[in-house]
Amino acid sequence: MADTTGEQPTRGGLLSSLLWPIDFVGRRSIEALAHVGSLLYLFLEAAGWVWRAATNRKIRLGRSAIVSQLVRVGVRSMFIVSLVSGSVGLILSLQLAPPLDQFGQRALIANIIGVAVLRELGPLIGAIVLTGFAGAAIAAEIGTMVVSEEIEALEASALNPVRFLVVPRLAATIVAMTGLGVLSSFVAISASIGISVVILDIPFETYFANMESQTKMVDFLTGLSKGTIFGMLIGVIACGNGLKVTGGAAGVGLATTRTVVQCVVAIVLADLVFTAIFYALDLV
How many domains is the chain built from? Predict the structure, then answer.
């Protein structure tokens, strides 16, 4: 009897240790799906308010709030986006020159930069910079409102928080990210042209002709659509994490960190999905 009772805890402990990874992965997967579902619901609710405002003149979303958020999110991000994208354009040009020189094709820098920046790097750089510049700030701002019970005050006054807080910020991130993606691509290509002409001795006419022959309108539209989707992801994730804040100041900091991490992961995964779809449709 003593041996039998002594073996049961050991077997139970061994079984629980073997099942712990499965339990951990299962719990995390359920939490991730629940979080994605809540963000999707938040986006649909915000889209519903936009539709109501478009179809019913009595419902207004507040143009001043949208414009102020657009200035805060988009206009104030232009300098840092331009700085980062311009630096990337310079780096890529300098890095591509030595390997292309081995084949006597230094002028093909224009072909590579044009396609890579318009399709991928332009919107991707803009989205990552906007995540750190505006996404974290949006989550912290809404999270502070939750902690200070301002959200409850809005609801007590019969004011919908999604309508007055989420919709202006979501609209601002979508519009701003669409424009910032174009700006990022333009600055990166301009920086590449400048260093190619001045340092790498590639004539401007040759650079422009090569880039024009390689790039197409579909490359620009691809980057433009990516920028719009990236902006939507940043806005929804930032607002969603801000509304879920609990635990005071520590909760605000945690929501900010989660927003940055989740936005970067979502942007990269969305970029992967876009690339796979465009490849399947023979648009790359």
Answer: 1
